[in-house]
Amino acid sequence: PQNEHIELHRKRHGRRFDHDEKQRKKEARQGRLRSKKARTLRGLKAKLYNKERHKEKVQMKKTLRAHDQRDTRQRADDQEVPEGAKPVYLLDREDQTRAKVLSNMLKQKRKEKAGKCDVPIPKVRATSEAEAFRALRSGKSKRKAWKRMVTKVTFVPDGFTRKPPKYERFIRPTGLRFKVAHVTHPELKATFQLPLLGVKKNPTSSLYTSLGIITKGTVIEVNVSDLGLVTQSGKVVWGKYAQVTNCPENDGCINAVLLV
Amino acid sequence: TMSSTADDNDDNGEDRAVLVQFVSETGEEAGPPLQALLGSTVADLKATLDAQLIVQSGDYDDQVIYKFFVDEAEVATSLAGAVDCGRVNERLLRIVYQPQALFRVRPVTRCTSSLPGHSEAVLSAAFSPDSRNLASGSGDAAVRFWDLSTETPLHECRGHKHWVLCIAWSPDGRRLASACKRGQICLWCPDTGKQIGRPLARHTQWVTSLAWRPLHLDSECRLLASASKDCTVILWDTIVGQVSRVISGHEQAVTQVRWGGTDLLYTGSRDRTVRVWRADDGALCRTLQQHAHWVNTLALSTDYAMRLGANEPGKPAPEIGAPRTELCERARRVYEAARRDQPERLVSGSDDFTLTLWTPETDKRPVARLTGHLQLVNDVRFSPDGRLLASASFDKSVRLWDGRTGKFLATLLGHVGRVYQVAWSADSRLLVSSSADSTLKLWDIGAAGGKNRLKPVNDLPGHADEVYAVDWSPDGQKVASGGKDRELKLWRN
């Protein structure tokens, strides 16, 4: 092999006598040389070099600070008792200050007047007809193109029967029909699989709502009798609205957030 | 039997005779049906009942006061007032009689002293079971004992490093356990103010609730249960100072733990379940699922009796040096009297605005679901005789429910801020509630007379900020309340 001659020479004859000192002095110069390089480089090379240097500086700062903290011996025991003592039943509850409560009430009244509803995803990108439907060719010579197949996830009610195939304009494939949705309760942070009851409103258009097309941002109605919610008068709540938070045609499941 | 000369010709009201049957609360009949005048008063009914009880069991207690109920309507002055006079001729009237407490607690009206001393908000206050001592825990990490005879501070106990969230007296009244937000539990001696043993540390997050083993099960008050946000309940051997058992199984923070009289532990948690555990081996007996949101509070029908320990209500407290076996025996008598041979009832109050009544020893399904509150339920207490239930909620009202069936009885309206806690007087006739609107309100339940919206009898203002904790002493003399304004107030008649 050709590349071992340096190593072999070093092993046979040793190093220079002043090797260690030269090494030490060379390393001492590196700091100066690196900063000179940083100052004089231009162009793309400068950008790349500066980026590397910044990363190294950040790491160095972190280790220095860690050393500092270890040295000052700051332990959790010595910290002071914090203010704002609350009894057990108020811990983990977000308490609003009294002023905030009033301003929130006013804002709520204004919103109700304006007719805006409080949904987690207020604005959604509308799905165009080209995206949601695909034209199907029909007829003896396959020239007619008035049928459309829905390419998004749909929900059909229980007693649903198709129109006679000759007259059916919108085809909802069975593979894209869903009956359950994974609904998350926003306060409990727990997710349940609940059966769908219907599509309340699709933000794109009322045509989509009537077809039962479910896209991101659609408000659906789910059966919450499993959760055990009760109204004031004691009746069990069995239907609630939820808003879809994912794109079901891409994921293969419907994820929604319960609107409480 | 006492029957009156019924004048059948005279058909207007009070002189008519009707057939009545006295039935106890558990459904037992006191004797055969007999005739009574429609105009008979409570005293007449009592005399009749006593006569029947003599025949049946050979003796009767002259001192007992009774309340009579006909078809859920209370007989306030006379029988005629409680029944529909037009329709009594054919029916047999079943009159349910309820013995009431003999002693009457006088309503508290004035604040006798404001005790400063804490440098941060008072988070919990409790009287000892014999009403001799008062302890309070506060946000300045100190537990204070107060001298009740002079109404001055007695000891200041420093040992915790964070807010003292809960305190609990041992059933014999000789020790106080306090728990802080860092998960440490300390035991204190009320006479000297010194800590007993070392702090018990094992929880990784704050302790939400403490419960001692009842005196009739454990005469030396050895075991203490603590529930914590770290989803576990730890049973401590307080004499040795070590962990006896760790009970884990809840998926989220455990908010309350209660030790039942048959050595069962009941725990309520934020994972929406209430679980029943056997205390001797830590095994899970039942999971009670009904709520739709966090379970905030639990209450047992025999809670008050187990809190009292060996102190029988209305009778003098046992001497300080009484032997343990005697205390145990007295505690057992108090417990049996409170239980009256029925299974213990448990009520859970939750963030889903409802309460659920269970009999956890026997059944997994709830007895009743109590709806009606408009905001989350913060505190639930059974009355000392177990017949009534009071629930305090953030919707500014306190609701009264029947303790056995869960039927709604009355709404107590009057507070203008969230109601945090309620406390019953020892005779189950008076109720005091503390609220975020800085007042306490006293309600008279005994004189309610079947109304379903009650107003407070007394308004107890005086606190400068929200009142976080309230407690009524078991002898009925004083009420202690503490809150965000850092002062502990004592109220008396």
UniProtKB/TrEMBL annotation, chain A:
Keyword Nucleotide-binding: no
Quaternary organization: Component of the pre-66S ribosomal particle.
Protein's name in the database: Ribosome biogenesis protein NSA2 homolog
Keyword Nucleus: yes
Pfam families xrefs: Ribosomal_S8e
Localization terms from the record: Nucleus, Nucleolus
Compositional bias of kind Basic residues: 31-45
Native organism: Macrostomum lignano
Family note: Belongs to the eukaryotic ribosomal protein eS8 family. Ribosome biogenesis protein NSA2 subfamily.
Region Disordered: start-end pairs: 1-84
InterPro entries per UniProt: NSA2_fam (IPR039411), Ribosomal_Se8/biogenesis_NSA2 (IPR022309)
Primary localisation category: nucleus
Function recorded in the entry: Involved in the biogenesis of the 60S ribosomal subunit. May play a part in the quality control of pre-60S particles.
Keywords: Nucleus, Ribonucleoprotein, Ribosome biogenesis, rRNA processing
Gene Ontology terms: biological process: ribosomal large subunit biogenesis; rRNA processing
GO cellular component, one term: preribosome
Basic and acidic residues bias (residue ranges): 17-30, 49-78
From TrEMBL, chain B:
Entries under InterPro entries matching the protein: WD40/YVTN_repeat-like_dom_sf, WD40_PAC1, WD40_repeat_CS, WD40_repeat_dom_sf, WD40_rpt
Residue spans of the WD repeats: 115-156, 157-198, 200-246, 247-287, 370-411, 412-445, 460-493
Swiss-Prot/TrEMBL GO biological process terms: Notch signaling pathway; ribosomal large subunit assembly
Keyword Nucleus: yes
Protein name: Uncharacterized protein
Signal peptide: none
Domain of life: Eukaryota
Species of provenance: Macrostomum lignano
Subcellular location: Nucleus, Nucleolus
SMART domains hit by this protein: WD40
Keyword list, A-Z: Nucleus, Repeat, WD repeat
Keyword ATP-binding included in the entry's annotation: no
PANTHER family: NOTCHLESS PROTEIN HOMOLOG 1, WD40 REPEAT PROTEIN
Main location: nucleus
Transmembrane portions of the chain: none
